[in-house]
Design goal:
356 residues; alpha/beta; seven-stranded mixed β-sheet; three-stranded antiparallel β-sheet; 12 helices; globular
Length: 356
């Protein structure tokens, strides 16, 4: 594992933990592995090939990853469960809602947040509203508002404070997907009743490592439908039979961890938990603002590290690709994202590709 020498690394310090990144503007699609992640995964692969796989060591990586994520989002580790995908978490949350519950969601939100509610049964009703007006759509009939903190397709940052305030005033619960936020935007998970985050994007971890934070009060209403051996109070004593005592805290919602993925996730999560979050947010949104100004695009209501614009035929995306810039396209829009490993040279490279 790469050593982390400071509890508050600067962006410049953190950039040295990446081997590359020039022209890579797609952290919103998949993050680049850190040097520590690469080294840890290769070392584990070599050890496994030599017959030295160590389940106890894997579990230690899982628990340290849990602690790093808890630090990232400002909660105690006992409020964090491990997961594999956002849809798994959304399915658990949906299972806690009463029959006929109304859930307010943003129009066009990511499907992994929506489909578990659509197919939960029990007459759950989804009502959509534009993301910018989500708080206004919450009423006395709303049981929950479920939303992405940062929209995948557009990069729009939700007015979380207004949404949470409106939900509380009407007695509705809040469920937030922070996958496109944690890693560049400071997030306080305790602001929400429940929060999901997959770590393979902005947290630069291997795919298959996700987290679920849940308030103690809401946790009491969620059935542990996915409980397996790792949800036990003592996982290594929960491997057989039905007489298993589940963990008293959020770990009762743990899914069986993808061990090798957590081996790679641990150094990445440690790194991001050690970066000054406000410095990183200023860096990423500053680069995005520079690019947006160069493109003549209007500034968003809330700064975002993601910039999107209309590109229905994919022409601009093709120009970026031809120039060696890795970007992405979603919902008829071109999309670029600026992260810790990017700088003004990446802005200039992308703008030059689009001006030629």
């Amino acid at each position: 594992m790469t050593a982390i020498l400071s509890p508050s690394l600067t962006v410049a310090d953190a950039r040295t933990h990446f081997a590359g990144g020039r022209g890579y503007l797609a952290a919103c699609t998949v993050g680049l592995p850190t040097r520590g992640t690469r080294d840890a995964v290769l070392a584990d692969l070599d050890a496994s090939a030599a017959g030295r796989a160590d389940p106890a060591s894997y579990s230690a990586s899982v628990e340290r990853s849990r602690e790093h994520f808890a630090r990232l989002v400002g909660v105690d580790p006992d409020r964090v469960a491990i997961a594999s995908q956002v849809s798994v978490v959304a399915g658990l949350v949906a299972a806690a809602l009463p029959h006929g519950a109304e859930v307010v969601v943003p129009e066009g939100d990511f499907s992994s947040m929506l489909l578990p509610f659509v197919h939960a049964g029990r007459g759950i009703r989804l009502r959509t509203a534009p993301s910018a007006r989500l708080a206004d759509a919450i009423t006395a009939t709303t049981a929950m508002v479920a939303f992405s903190l940062v929209q995948s397709a557009t990069g729009e940052v939700a007015d979380a404070a207004s949404i949470v305030a409106a939900a509380r005033s009407h007695g509705a619960r809040t469920f937030c997907d922070a996958t496109q936020a944690v890693g560049w935007l400071p997030v306080e998970a305790s602001d929400f009743d429940a929060l999901a985050c997959h770590a393979y994007k902005w947290l630069c971890a291997p795919r298959g490592v996700a987290f679920f934070t849940v308030s103690e009060r809401f946790a009491r209403d969620i059935p542990p439908r996915l409980a397996g051996w790792y949800a036990g109070a003592d996982p290594w004593a929960s491997c057989y039979g039905v007489d298993v005592r589940l963990a008293e805290d959020a770990r009762r919602f743990d899914v069986s961890p993808a061990w090798q993925a957590f081996v790679g996730a641990e150094p990445a999560l440690e790194l991001f938990a050690s970066i000054d979050p406000h410095g990183l947010s200023s860096h990423t949104t500053g680069l995005a603002a520079s690019f947006r100004a160069g493109m003549g695009l209007p500034a968003p209501d809330r700064p975002s590290a993601i910039v999107t614009w209309s590109d229905p035929a994919g022409t601009d995306l093709a120009r970026l690709t031809l120039a060696g810039v890795t970007a992405s396209g979603r919902a008829g829009r071109a999309r670029v994202a600026f992260h810790v490993f990017n700088d003004e040279r990446d802005v200039a490279l992308a703008l030059a590709a689009l001006r030629d």
